[in-house]
Amino acid sequence: MADVKRVERPLSPHLQIYRPQLTSISSILTRITGNALIVSALLVVWWLLAAATSEAYYDIANGVLTSWFGDIVLTLSALGVWYHYLAGLRHLYFDAGKGLDIPTAEKLGWACIIGSVVLTVLTIVIV
Fold first, then answer.
1. How far apart are CA 30 and CA 16, in angstroms?
2. Can you tell me the distance from the alpha carbon of 25 to that of 120, in angstroms, rounded to the nearest whole number?
3. What percent of the chain has pLDDT over 90?
4. Residue 26 has what pLDDT?
5. Where are the alpha helices (DSSP H) in the chain?
């Protein structure tokens, strides 16, 4: 083959030089909460199947869900449900072509985060 002269091009910037932005973090959190809700839904389905199977198997599943581990998982699931719901509403707002400027998008990102925490606390207090 002929000698190929390589052109010295600048390397693409690595992720370490970028400052995380709220809009990208909220997008990543939406995907994470969606996947985490699948796991928690499977846990609840396991609990329901155990209730339909036998009393001994239900006692095991119920023991897991009512333990400190189950309390943490279900509390984080409630947080995930509220965050995913509010982020979905924000996405519908974006789909309508509104709120696409950076200051509004950041305010809506903070609204999703703060709103999900407040709604989770209200859910825990009420339920």
1. 22
2. 20
3. 81
4. 93
5. 22-53, 55-65, 68-95, 102-126
Count Cβ atoms within 10 A of the Cβ of residue 116 and give its class: 0-12 exposed, 13-18 middle, 19 or more buried. buried
Phi, psi angles (nearest 5°) of residue 8: -75, 105
DSSP-based three-state secondary structure for 15: helix
- Asked if 113 and 27 touch (Cβ cutoff 8 Å), the reply is no
Q: Give me 98's structure tokens.
A: 């509104």
Which one has a higher pLDDT value, 8 or 103? 103
Tokens of residue 56, six digits: 């001994």
Q: How far is CA 20 from CA 26, 72, 86, 112, in A?
A: 10, 27, 21, 17
Domains of the chain: 21-126 (1.20.1300.10)
- Integer Rg of the chain from CA: 22
Mean pLDDT in residue range 68-76:
94
Average pLDDT, the chain: 91
- pLDDT of 1 higher than 60: no
